[in-house]
From TrEMBL:
Species for this entry: Paenibacillus gallinarum
Species lineage: Bacteria, Bacillati, Bacillota, Bacilli, Bacillales
Location(s) in or outside the cell: Cytoplasm
Protein function: Bidirectionally degrades single-stranded DNA into large acid-insoluble oligonucleotides, which are then degraded further into small acid-soluble oligonucleotides.
UniProt protein name: Exodeoxyribonuclease 7 small subunit
Gene3D superfamilies found in the cross-reference section: Exonuclease VII, small subunit
InterPro entries documented for this protein: Exonuc_VII_S, Exonuc_VII_ssu_sf
Keywords: Cytoplasm, Exonuclease, Hydrolase, Nuclease
Source species, domain of life: Bacteria
Length: 84
């Protein structure tokens, strides 16, 4: 198991999938199942956090008065119409 701060989204999802597969098999001792569940929850939260970070960076193009400009996903905009 790797430190969460070092994991990419893809690596966290892959590890989460392994954890889920182990739990679904149902052949792990109770104590190990609890540890796996806790690890899975941490990985799930990490993936959610990473997705939220990406969501904030997504830019959408909006039309305003016949012109197009970039706008951050949440509507936040930098000076000059260039988004964050």
């Amino acid at each position: 198991m790797t430190n969460e701060a070092e994991l990419s989204f893809e690596a966290a999802m892959a590890e989460l999938e392994l954890v889920v597969n182990q739990l679904e098999r149902g052949d792990v001792p109770l104590e190990q199942a609890i540890e796996l569940f806790q690890r899975g929850m941490k990985l799930s939260q990490l993936c959610n956090h990473k997705l939220e970070q990406v969501e904030r960076k997504i830019e959408i193009i909006v039309e305003e008065d016949g012109a197009y400009r970039k706008q951050a996903f949440g509507g936040m905009e930098e000076e000059g119409g260039v988004s964050l």
